[in-house]
Design goal:
Blueprint lengths: L4 H10 L7 H25 L14 H7 L5 E5 L6 H4 L3 H25 L3 H13 L3 H13 L3 E3 L5 E3 L19 H13 L3 H7 L4 E6 L2 E6 H4 L1 H15 L5 H15 L3 H11 L7 E8 L13 H9 L9 E9 L1 H7 L6 H6 L19 E12 H4 L8 E4 L5 H4 L5 E6 H4 L4 H14 L10 H14 L15 H15 L1 H7 L4 H14 L11 H15 L3 E3 L5 E3 L1 H21 L2 H11 L4 H13 L4 E5 L1 H7 L2
Parallel strand pairs: 1-13, 8-10
Antiparallel strand pairs: 2-3, 4-5, 6-7, 7-8, 9-10, 11-12
Helix pairs in contact: 1-2, 3-7, 5-11, 6-7, 8-14, 11-12, 12-13, 20-28, 21-22, 21-24, 22-25, 22-26
Length: about 625
């Protein structure tokens, strides 16, 4: 039986006698090699990240007091302890909800480990400082909990670094902290040339943490990396399945539990396929897997030599998934309203540009494999619960890179987040009116309807299921920006088609157009890592060029309603063409040509900043907190 590696290291470290012969020199060299090997083994076993344990807070007390004040820190509240949605659940579903919340809570820790090498150590540091009475640490912890990490962008696209000397890496914590893009490419080229094709394929897939092994890299599957956490989650899902009242939902939970216990992507595929069929269930549970945060993996297509080697070996690089949890109660009334669009999906597919040149998830002549639910949220954890510049309104999953889509011909499911989108308080409505007064032509105020933003979002999420569902990987870091742009343009380009078909009234058509254009205005120029926001700037610039919108030198928006849909159709055609080509240089040129922040946009942004102080946001989950403690 192999000796414990820690004991081996102790033996190697204590054997320090000075060598005085050739044989002893060789022994010492071997001893050093053995020491390195054992340290490497420990790192591989535990994915040890050696990070600094003593930190210095980066924000001043004055800045912290401002950012944690209610005027600057907005709050999204999930279901309350006495929420009627919870009270009316069957007893079995109430019991299941408790286990689902416990399972989802684990993803806060897991995703923080994927996000930044310093997150957990810094969290521990803050907790110790708070015990000492450190007021700055207490306020810093509020921001840390809100953005779920030590580094994050705020509403004005400023990177907020809570600890001095700690920044956000392109590879987040799914790659070694000191790994540069150039070294990454060089290592992969060497590995491919030495025949290590399978190892490189694992490094460039969406479900692995990458660590150093000597002068190479090696990938550890998420299930192996987070074995303890995933096992706990799996047990909680099995417990939920034993008491929940819905057989379909229980089958999905058991499949998901199996996928958490064994590193087999096909197990996730079977769970995803079942999840995508869920329509009439009382509860909602999802492990969300989105890959917008990884800025390292897709850079491989920028290196001609490396890309050629990848193509020759049939390796398609896919950005790493970041993990979130969503727990909710299905709102039947809201779901019925959302389902109204399902009958129109084949019509939308039929009206997509160049639809004869690609396969899309929605077929013009078959029943759509697309389920849709409106969820009252109990908890949002990990990636989906991060309040960084904004927070997710809805999700269309699984993404096209998942095996349930590629191998099993599975469908997709849209989940809409009621507590995040609803504007119910008088204070929130007053803030919205102030924003309209600051940036929108007064003659257009009558068309603005915050519910129309929800209608547009429904079109956006279904837009992800339309257009090419493969072949866009060559767009590299611009893939997500272009995909988000496409989804927006699908929603807007289809407004007239859906109005003619009877889904929208003429009044709703005008409300969707005006509300979209108004809400698309930004309070600051984003950076290229913000796919959802970069595409808004691109659209605004494009629509200005086409004369569909104008912004006065004073920063006031005017909208030509009749030019909006034709402009969206034109932009959609260009986007689909770029996705079909799948060429990095073409995609890069399109993004950079349209990602233009004009003086007029800045004037309008200044107007927003005058009436909106919000810089950060947080989530409060009272019902989830109660269930966690039961």
């Amino acid at each position: 039986m192999d000796i414990n590696p820690i004991k081996k290291i102790q033996v190697l470290l204590t054997n320090k006698q000075k060598p005085d012969s050739k044989s002893e020199i060789t022994f010492c060299q071997n001893r050093e090699e053995n020491l390195i090997m054992e340290l490497d083994k420990m790192s591989m076993m535990n994915n040890v990240n050696i990070v600094k344990k003593d930190y210095e807070l980066n924000l001043s007390l004055e800045e912290l007091q401002k950012r944690t004040h209610k005027d600057y820190l907005t709050t999204k509240k999930m279901l309350a302890v006495d929420a009627p949605e919870y009270e009316t659940l069957a007893d079995g579903d109430k019991q299941a909800l408790k286990h689902l919340v416990k399972a989802a809570s684990v993803l806060d820790k897991v995703n923080m480990e994927l996000d930044n090498h310093h997150n957990l150590a810094f969290k521990e540091y803050l907790e110790k400082e708070i015990e000492k009475g450190n007021e700055s640490a207490k306020l810093t912890k509020i921001l840390f909990d809100a953005q779920k990490g030590v580094c994050a962008l705020d509403r004005e696209s400023n990177m907020i670094e809570l600890a001095k000397g700690v920044d956000m890496k392109p590879g987040k914590a799914v790659y070694p902290e000191d790994l540069t893009k150039e070294e990454f490419h060089s290592i992969l080229i060497k590995m491919l040339k030495s025949g290590k094709v399978d190892e490189v394929a694992k490094i460039l897939n969406q479900r692995s943490v990458v660590v150093r092994k000597g002068d190479e890299l090696v990938a550890i599957d998420y299930v192996d990396r987070f074995k303890e956490e995933f096992s706990y989650m799996a047990d909680e899902l099995d417990r939920a399945a034993s008491v929940s009242t819905n057989a379909d939902f229980n089958e999905f939970l058991r499949l998901q539990a199996m996928a958490l216990r064994k590193a087999d992507p096909m197990l996730d595929a079977y769970a995803d396929k079942k999840w995508a069929t869920l329509q009439d269930t009382p509860l909602e549970f999802t492990i969300t897997r989105e890959n917008y945060s990884d800025e390292m993996t897709e850079t491989v297509v920028e290196n001609p030599e490396l890309k050629k080697l990848l193509d020759e070996n049939g390796i398609v690089p896919v950005a790493k998934d970041f993990l979130g949890g969503r727990v909710g109660i299905i709102n039947k009334k809201g779901t019925e309203a959302i389902l109204g669009v399902k009958n129109y999906l084949p019509l939308m597919a039929q009206n997509m540009p160049f639809n004869d040149k690609y396969i899309q998830n929605i077929s013009p002549d078959k029943e759509s494999k697309q389920t849709m639910v409106d969820a009252d949220l109990v908890a949002v954890t990990g990636d989906v619960g991060e309040f960084r510049a904004g927070i997710t309104l809805a999700e269309n999953l699984p993404n096209d890179d998942k095996l349930s889509i590629i191998e099993l011909d599975g469908g997709r499911r849209n989940v809409y987040h009621r507590q995040i989108r609803l504007i119910t308080s008088d204070d929130a409505k007053e803030k919205m009116q102030k924003r309209l007064d600051a940036i929108l032509n007064p003659e257009l105020h009558k068309y603005y309807n915050d519910e129309a933003d929800h209608w547009f979002t429904i079109g956006h999420e279904n837009g992800h299921s339309l257009g090419p569902k493969s072949g866009t990987e060559g767009l590299g870091k611009y893939k997500s920006i272009i995909e988000e742009n496409k989804a927006d343009m699908v929603s807007l380009a289809m407004v007239d088609v859906l109005t003619e078909a009877g889904m929208y009234s003429p009044e709703q058509r005008e409300q969707i157009i005006i509300t979209y254009a108004t809400d698309n205005m930004m309070m600051s120029k984003p950076n290229m890592s913000q796919a959802h926001r970069v595409r808004s700037v691109m659209q605004n610039y494009y629509f200005i060029k086409e004369g569909a919108i104008t912004i006065s030198p004073e920063g006031v928006l005017d909208i030509n309603i009749e030019k909006m849909v034709p402009t969206a159709k034109k932009m959609l055609e260009e986007i689909i063409q770029i996705q079909l080509e799948g060429d990095f240089a073409t995609g890069e040129k399109y993004v950079l040509d349209n990602f233009v922040w004009t003086e007029e946009m800045e004037s309008l942004a200044q107007n927003i900043r005058k009436v909106s102080k919000t810089l950060n946001g947080k989530v409060e989950s009272p019902l989830a907190d109660k269930l966690l403690n039961e």
